[in-house]
Amino acid sequence: MKQVWQRSSKDMTAMPPLRHRGAAKKPMWIIVLLSLVCVALMGAYVYPPRRYSACYFFASSVCTPFKDWLPNVAREKTDEEIISSVVIRDLLSMPMPVSKNPKIAFMFLTPGSLPFEKLWEKFLQGHDGRYSIYIHASREKPVHSSSLFVGREIHSEKVVWGRISMVDAEKRLLANALEDVDNQFFVLLSDSCVPLHTFDYIYNYLMGTNVSFIDSFLDPGPHGTGRYSMEMLPVIEQRDFRKGAQWFAITRRHALLILADNLYYNKFKLYCKPAEGRNCIADEHYLPTLFNMVDPGGIANWSVTHVDWSEGKWHPRSYRAADVTYELLKNITSVNENFHITSDDKKVATLTPCMWNGAKRPCYLFARKFYPEALNNLLKLSSSHTAA
């Protein structure tokens, strides 16, 4: 038989009163730790470190940057950013003066003499008034073999490979070429460059479009995004960093934009240098990044100057006299797809059609690097391989 217990009033009064426990004090180290975590999270959001992602915390096949987890917060632009955006916006929208005699400015960036002046003279013959020549000789005064190049030197300064001085030389050439209002297209060439087609073909190719031929592609490897510096934040984010060939052919509008830019240029001047951890090469990243950010639709994303990097070395393949054959030049001029390969372990290769006004066309108008000894062979072949 179960015994039912009933508590009498005496029992109840005999029970001790309930004791109220005071609030437990949290250890100080927990508060400090939480504060540090909050500060770290805010810092990661505002200034995300390179390659920082949720992948560090979760072994997931699909990882999103930690910054994407947090709500977007509008960042107040600096005075320099506001000035830059206004200038670039108006340059891209304002009408350019129409020239009655549009010319191509051929701008040669060279340490000294130009070994292929005779070839260029043959190329330019009969086209007076449709071109201009500018020479930036960074080491010694050129000795000319063609009268077309005499007196075409501009004030030049020393140029160091990989340094911002290379970009400075490009800007110096552009400034001098822009003084002539008839110059409508601006082509950067080296002392080892040669033309691949007739003058008329190249003239019509460039003047017949309103885009600039600037190479710009995303390379997630060590020779691409790996050269990015967090010091470029917040003006340039890692996702905007691009790589491309130095050799460009650009419209007058874009030439003016390059000279007007100071904001992005200063970031590369300060934080893109060779042999400083990331080995950043300014002339390979400045213009590709600039135009990817301010006018991606205004560039073709390839260079019209052919360079063979297939050997996988620091410098491209160079052509000696014996290499210069009809087959070589025909192969280069028939290429109609732009090739890129990433520098990471995946070595992802992409082929993109070279589209000119909606039609697939040959990509290249010029080529490099040719040894001076190849001049005679190039002169012999210049009439037989070039397209009209």
From TrEMBL:
Domain of life: Eukaryota
Subcellular location: Membrane
Keyword Nucleotide-binding: no
MF GO annotations: glycosyltransferase activity
Assigned keywords, A-Z: Glycoprotein, Glycosyltransferase, Membrane, Transferase
Gene Ontology cellular-component annotations: membrane
Protein name: Core-2/I-branching beta-1,6-N-acetylglucosaminyltransferase family protein
Native organism: Panicum miliaceum
Lineage, highest ranks first: Eukaryota, Viridiplantae, Streptophyta, Embryophyta, Tracheophyta
